[in-house]
Design a protein that fits this description.
about 350 residues; Rossmann fold; 9 helices; single chain; alpha/beta
Length: about 350
């Protein structure tokens, strides 16, 4: 089934990825039915990645929905700094203000990471609003997914678990081991790959001590996925299962561009487990030239066209299965809630 985007006063519209349904009437969304799931996406990404992140999550939901119809509402925190580019996109796509959550209920919520602008999470301009979202989600969703910085913010708010700065960016596609039989990882291979792009981590021992269930880990990049059952099932991804094949390459180009412009001191580390040998050699050559003669014009020689055709999203099947499990969980909970309660005074025959 396709994803329906909530367009506010303009009514639902089909997400463009549902090619086979273009030009056809949108399926009818019936709120009380188990095969109709209402989700919210709080997109906190910076202006440069706002539209890309929205598209990636929509495509992943579309691939994972199977026979379940999803209606998706887009939300934005007013406290996240935005310029004209971002504000225009929020208006064009009819993002709701996050204040509209407080009097509503959703089956599920997805909260993305954000670009850090302060040394401490509690100093971020959106901190108070984001923590209010976490509290709301516990009581008004069946399940909530959090990724990247939103993960670090949530575990600190909920259990006082601090994030730890890494010596270098955890950047690339890493091999993870499934270490649980939890419903969120049913059908996923014992070893699978997920992209990561982060400067901080929350550590397994601190999570376990506070009652979190670890679902996947890697020796060289720590915990990927974990959960905690509260009134809502909170699902945490330190990585980015929604990434497309070329996302890490675009991030690496951006980081190199920042180095060449003098906006960062050190040359960025190449993404690990992501490029073939020929591609890595081409990027090593660019690095040598950039370090020898640091000038912003060199970014024009970044070999995007040469490399992008070689990239594949080796994590796509695992990511789709994760999201499919999540959607199925919310549907199953809807069925359970719809069953009439059996009175203790009524004999069961």
């Amino acid at each position: 089934m396709p994803v329906l985007l909530d367009s506010g006063p303009f009514g639902d519209r089909l997400f463009a990825a549902a090619e086979h349904l273009r030009g056809k009437a949108a399926p009818h969304f019936r709120e009380g039915e188990a095969n109709c799931i209402e989700l919210g996406l709080i997109n906190n990404m910076p202006d440069s990645a706002l539209e890309q992140t929205e598209r990636q999550i929509l495509k992943l939901l579309d691939a994972a929905a199977n026979d379940i119809l999803i209606r998706l509402k887009l939300y934005a925190l007013s406290d996240v700094p935005r310029k004209d580019r971002g504000l225009k996109h929020l208006a064009r796509r009819h993002y709701y203000g996050v204040h509209e959550l407080w009097s509503s209920h959703l089956d599920g919520l997805i909260v993305t990471g954000a670009e850090p602008v302060a040394p401490e999470l509690t100093q971020e301009p959106y901190w108070n609003t984001l923590t209010k979202v976490f509290d709301w989600a516990e009581h008004n969703t069946t399940s909530t997914i959090l990724s990247c910085l939103a993960v670090h913010a949530a575990v600190f708010h909920l259990d006082g678990i601090g994030r730890n700065a890494l010596n270098d960016k955890c950047f690339g596609v890493f091999d993870f081991e499934r270490v649980s039989s939890h419903q969120m990882v049913v059908g996923i291979p014992s070893r699978f790959r997920i992209p990561h792009s982060r400067w901080n981590e929350v550590r397994e021992d601190a999570l376990v001590a506070c009652g979190y269930d670890i679902l996947a880990r890697a020796r060289d990049s720590g915990v990927d996925m974990f959960v905690k059952e509260k009134k809502s099932l909170f699902v945490f991804f330190q990585g980015h299962p929604e990434y497309e094949a070329g996302t890490l390459l675009a991030e690496y180009r951006r980081d190199i561009d920042q180095f060449l412009k003098g906006e960062r001191e050190t040359y960025p580390t190449m993404p690990r487990g992501y490029l073939d040998e020929d591609s890595a050699r081409a990027l090593d050559d660019l690095r040598d030239r950039a370090i020898a003669n640091r000038r912003k014009e060199l970014i024009a020689s970044f070999p995007t066209d040469r490399l992008v055709g070689k990239l594949t999203d080796t994590w796509r099947s695992a990511a789709t299965q994760m999201y499919s499990n999540w959607i199925s969980h919310m549907s199953a909970q809807k069925v359970l809630r719809a069953r009439p309660a059996v009175s203790a005074a009524t004999p069961v025959r």
